[in-house]
Amino acid sequence: MRILIATDAWHPQINGVVRTLTTMAAAARKLGVDIQFLTPEPFRTIGLPGYEGLRVALPSPRKVARLIEDAQPDNIHIATEGPLGLMVRRYCRKRGLPFTTSFHTRFPEYIAARAPVPESWVWAALRRFHWPSGAVMAATQALADELRGRGFRNVVLWPRGVDTRLFHPRETDLGLPRPVFLSVGRVAVEKNLEAFLSLDLPGSKVIVGDGPARADLQRKFPNAVFLGALSGEALAGVYAAADVFVFPSRTDTYGLVLLEALASGVPVAAFPAPGPRDVIGAAPVGVLDEDLRRACLDALKIDRRDCLAFADQHGWEHSAECFIGNVAHSRHDEPWVVIRTARTLLELRR
Length: 350
Fold this sequence. Notes:
By secondary structure, the chain is of the alpha/beta class. It is about 45% helix and about 15% strand. The chain has 15 helices and 14 strands. Strands 2-1-5-6-7-8 form a six-stranded parallel β-sheet, with helices on both faces. It is globular. The model has no long low-confidence stretch (mean pLDDT about 90).
């Protein structure tokens, strides 16, 4: 089985969408399913106004068609609703080809935070984009229910995972006063970081990530430590050095960073918003409270062993199997037959 994933989000961007797609693809390949990507890399790109570090492709229909045909995929998945996603959707619709999509980003809220555009208009555009999809993949049951309530069709679950080989407890020290309250992610207005940075907390506040709001926040909160964008072992080491992971966003659809923190043995403090509420639920691994300061202080009392046990239940292989199953179901194939057949072919190649 060969699946081509079209995505506007790609390296050098560091975000949950890129990490989800690349890590899931690696797990799927171990199951014998060939995942390829159609990304902005072969195209000219431009920076978004007010967010120069976030670049989008300017794809041409002819080049998109050639790249898809060269890949010879059995299935096409469109991961993002940007210019490349739109062009691949157009290609599929024009040729009557089935495809699946996924819903990663709450663009209505993100756009409303930057421009006077009614959220209802953006939801209507997203609904139209996903309408022909054979399966619209959502990370959580709550998000799936919301999308159905907003008129989306064919909504299915695609849970996320965490790489516990990379993110795990380790002896590391940032040399900062403790406790260390950490937040990781894009430094942008929709992440609501000011709600965290303005709290009266003991110890240190650390921000990992980059984005258009960083310079402003650094000027406003000079006592906070901004480490910039990190990845791999450097990122994992900072997670492990923290005492509490603070997630102030109210708009994230999931929050992959929550699982990375928990796998590092770090409890979570967050608002009771859909993302953290869906990831953590009633598990004793975090505190969700409208009083974020109280959540941060109460999270210090959580047993880190509970965090590790929770993270161990969220592997990427299960996420990959769900993704493959959704693609197979959208074509009326039997997903477990697809996976078993792919595994058999992989063993034969070895």
